[in-house]
Amino acid sequence: LLMSIDQGKPFMYWKVPTPRRVLLIDTEMPRRLIQSRLQNWFGRKKPDSSLVLSAAAFRSATNSHFKLDNEQHQELLHSLVVDRQVDVVIIDPLAPALDCDENSNNDVGLYMPFLTELRDEGVTVVLSHHSGKAEESGQRGASRRRDYLDLSIQLINAKVLKNARFTTKFDKVREETPEPPTWTSELMWDEAFFWALSSNLLRDDEPLVRSLIYLYEHTGKLNVTEMAEDLGYRRNRMYSIFNRAAAHGLLVGKNKELTEKGIYLVMEALPDESE
Q1: Non-local CB neighbours of 120 within 8 Å, separated by 6+ positions
Q2: H-run or E-run covering 115
Q3: Before 178, cis peptide (omega within 30)?
Q4: H or E element at residue 33
Q5: If you count Cβ atoms within 10 Å of the first and of the last residue's Cβ in the chain, which end, N or C, has fewer?
Q6: Sequential DSSP letters for 223-262
Q7: Percent helix, strand and coil across the chain, each to the nearest 5
């Protein structure tokens, strides 16, 4: 996520049209391991404007590791955000960044209002948090924390041995649920070492595949309204599908022309007439 936002690259189904400054606070890994991972991810070209800190980075100023429920640390974090003109703050994971009881609804008030203030100042805040023992129950700890969230995304283990495969779904959405509402993805690296969906998982995206087949079979000037009616989708959903396809290199241009990758996906999806 840090790499995609910092360099303006797609992250799974989401486009990142403009690179943004990111502040990532890793609350588990030591500084040495963080530096090693950055080297592996970015090589010699480290992020120009983004910043990755370990929890220990706050120790020199406060004599303790970063704690989100500590007012002094909140002030330091806010200063960093302002001074660095940070657009996105990522805290990964949340639990080690808390001294308070993560199961206490009262203690949620020690840190979530501060994050809400950051959001109100135009900063996107991303919290990584673990689920409970029962995955279907969602994130562990106090239920009140969820009340502050605009969007909650849950990753559910698909329980396969090869690679990291999981089902992604929107656990809470304040506005309209993005498309697709749920999908299965696999942790893979493309040639530029960005997280990508494998082609076999793209084939499971029925609205996307149907739309590509439609474009393949209907050449000429694109009529989005007519296409939406023919496929039984709303017009705004069609644009969401177009954006999704373009983010994965399946469509290009204003006329939504299929790329070689898009044509290949269509050929895989169409029935074999020789059979």
Answers
A1: none
A2: helix 112-120
A3: no
A4: helix 31-42
A5: C
A6: -HHHHHHHHT--HHHHHHHHHHHHHTTSEETTTTEE-HHH
A7: 40, 20, 40
Q: Residue 250 corresponds to which tokens in the numbers above?
A: 């399946």
3-state SS class at 1 = coil
CB 245 within 8 A of CB 212: yes
Contact predicate 26/92, CB 8 Å: yes
Single-letter amino acid, residue 12: M
Gap between the Cα atoms of 240 and 208, Å rounded: 10
Q: Which residues of the chain have pLDDT under 70?
A: 42-48, 135-136, 158-164, 187-201, 272-275
CA distance between the termini of the chain = 43
Nearest Cα to 197, choosing from 163, 148, 236, 161? 163
DSSP SS3 for 275: coil
In single-letter form, the type of residue at position 153 comes to I
* pLDDT score recorded for residue 44: 60
Distances (CA, A) of 261 to 112, 169, 256, 268: 43, 26, 13, 11
Dist. CA 177–CA 171, nearest whole Å: 10
Reply yes or no: is the peptide bond before residue 180 cis, omega within 30 of 0. yes
- Strand 151-157 versus strand 88-92 pairing type: unpaired
Q: What is the pLDDT of residue 180?
A: 75
Residues 6+ apart with CB under 8 A from 101: 107
